[in-house]
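Can anyone check this?
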Amino acid sequence: MSIFLDENSKVIVQGMTGSEGMKHSQRMLDSGTAVVGGVNPRKAGQSVSFEGGHEVPVFGSVAEAMEATGANVSVVFVPPAFAKSAAIEAIDAEIPLLVVITEGIPVRDSAEFFTYARSKGTTRVIGPNCPGLISPGKSNAGITPANITGPGKLGLVSKSGTLTYQMMYELADIGFTTAIGIGGDPVIGTTHIDALEAFENDPDTVGVVMIGEIGGDAEERAAAYIKDNMSKPVVGYVAGFTAPEGKTMGHAGAIVSGSAGTAQAKKEALEAAGVKVGKTPTETAELMREIVKGLA
């Protein structure tokens, strides 16, 4: 099985006719994803021709696209200034899964549409500022390169896009049920804990790799969850061991305050919960590889 995304997922792309939307819609189609429509009110009624003989219709709204195609996933490539309204439109249409790729959305906007999604209770939000998620061999919603790895038995949840890709590569010999990039912004829709719970409940996932980074307390909270709720082995990696304290690093969420939020503090919290933590992505992959060998 996989979490949140499978071979039955029907994907629409908000902002499909823009340059990023076009490029990544093509990549999603190439990887076998059922991209069934685009959304652009100014181009409603048109269609877009993609390589491979794919002709994808463009609709005026998410609700219209869902009614016409049965779509249950929307991927957002809308510019930051318009991302909140695009997200709210999808939430109003009650799309089950909303994947917000856009980077640079104001935190207040993200907080507003995430709070709205939670109040409605019908839409899971992934992101913003994330690579999306991939269930190899089944579906790919976002910008994750589909040729890094194949289907397998590991779960992966990561704050960082590039580290998602690297870990998929490092463990390509085992493969993944689903790899999900949750994004590194201060406000995100789906957390480490949400993904861990889903992987724990997925019978085909035998172990989980969790990638965090300095700043905030998401990894510490995930460690507490793992200790109390996870029966499957979890291996962790925390980016930022060499970062100077008090320095903002990369993602807006990676701000270190005092000892909280440092890589060392996160490592200690995870290890106290029984999670093995690698100092590098390669070492982390090797820890998971040894665990999988022991499960055989």
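Reply from J.R.: I decoded it. The chain has nine helices and 14 strands.
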